[in-house]
Amino acid sequence: MIREMTAEEVPLAARIIRRAFATVAEEFGLTRENYPTHPSFLTEERLLGEIARGLHLFILEEDGSPACMVGLRRLEDGTTALERLAVLPEHRHRGCGVRLVEFVCRQEVLYWTEGADTDGYDLETIQSIYRSTDPLSKFSFIIEYEQQPIGECWLQRMNLPYLLQQFPDRDCRRIDLMIGEKDYWNRGIGTTVISLLTRFGFEEENADAIFGVIFDFNHRSRRAFEKNGFQLFEIVPTPGEPKSKADYVLMHTREQNVERKAHADNQ
Ligand SMILES: CC(C)(COP(=O)(O)OP(=O)(O)OC[C@H]1O[C@@H](n2cnc3c(N)ncnc32)[C@H](O)[C@@H]1OP(=O)(O)O)[C@@H](O)C(=O)NCCC(=O)NCCS
Fold first, then answer.
1. Among residues 102, 130, 206, 246, which is most buried (max CB within 10 A)?
2. Residues 88 and 181 in one domain
3. Alpha-carbon span 97 to 33, nearest angstrom
4. pLDDT tens digits along 34-44
5. Distance from residue 182's CA to the centre of ligand 1 (Å)
6. How far is the CA of 218 from the centre of ligand 1 (A)?
């Protein structure tokens, strides 16, 4: 089982890190005197300080016992650092470190798209999400790159009451997308997907306005929408959502799209 560790488990986490790194300290003759900051001498206070500065700890347990753990820290530039990867000596060479890192990388994708209470979906939930897709209100697509599925995207009717109230007589849609393989981020794929869905929305579906609803910290997504002519419409506070203080609502209207196309044609 893999899960995020709780604040009460800091003593356990510090113990795992110390035990895992003790073999390294022994091999290289490291002591409190010659290398006091080595992880094999990590204190709970120090680990608490790292958690206060944004480190999230994940643990993998085998048969109910801790086997390994890793820390994840999101950096200012939108990238993520994995720190403190520690596999207990008796659990080494069995692939648990790889399993844990793969899990944390998947969590990382969820972080940008899902609410704070979601740490993944089982098959049944995923099936219910896609099987409930009503072709008249939602279109969902797989994003493929070189014949490999790497993500998914949606064009659906607006489902947020606060936006519907503001545009009662207009056909409003929203675009949601997720490239699930991080290696494919920042290569222009998301921008292309938004462009295709926008075209589909206006030209085939006759939408009046299309929106993107984005966590305040997701600058990458915001930029990909802006590159397609979407503009900030409003910032909606999200009290109670621990990850994000607000949703950035970006909008592109039919009129703006016509103007944008005319401008592109004249270039
Ligand atoms: C968001 C996502 C769809 C964007 O797709 P992508 O293919 O990675 O994005 P693109 O490469 O097309 O464009 C990203 C742009 O953001 C810029 N960017 C990247 N990180 C940034 C940051 N931290 N701050 C500002 N801009 C950033 C890139 O430089 C690029 O702009 P440029 O072409 O002008 O240089 C994709 O990264 C993803 O699936 N992320 C995880 C899930 C998610 O966030 N979904 C969106 C929920 S609203």
1. 246
2. no
3. 30
4. 999 999 999 99
5. 11
6. 8
| pLDDT averaged over every residue in the chain | 92
What is the tens place of the pLDDT at every residue in 66-84?
999 999 988 877 678 899 9
Q: Residues enclosing ligand 1, CB less than 6 A?
A: 77-78, 109, 112-113, 151, 177-179, 185-191, 214, 218-221, 223-224
Last residue of a domain, one of 48, 79, 113: 113
* Whether residue 119 has pLDDT greater than 70: no
Which atom belonging to ligand 1 lies closest to the Cα atom of 180? Answer: 39
One domain, residues 140 and 257: yes
Structural domain count, the chain: 2
Q: Are 255 and 131 found together in one domain?
A: yes
* 211, 174 Cβ separation under 8 angstroms: yes
Average pLDDT over residues 143-147: 94
- Gap from CA of 223 to ligand 1 centroid (Å): 6
Does 250 lie in the same domain as 132?
A: yes
Residue nearest to atom 37 of ligand 1 (CA): 185
DSSP 8-state code for residue 133: -
SS3 state of residue 55: strand
CATH number of the domain encompassing residue 189: 3.40.630.30
Q: What is the identity of the amino acid at 261?
A: K
Non-local CB neighbours of 114 within 8 Å, separated by 6+ positions: none
Instruction: Name the residue range of residue 56's domain.
Output: 2-113
State pTM to two decimals.
Answer: 0.80
Centre of ligand 1 from the C-alpha of residue 67, in Å: 35
Do 205 and 236 lie in one domain? The reply is yes
* 118 assigned to some structural domain: no
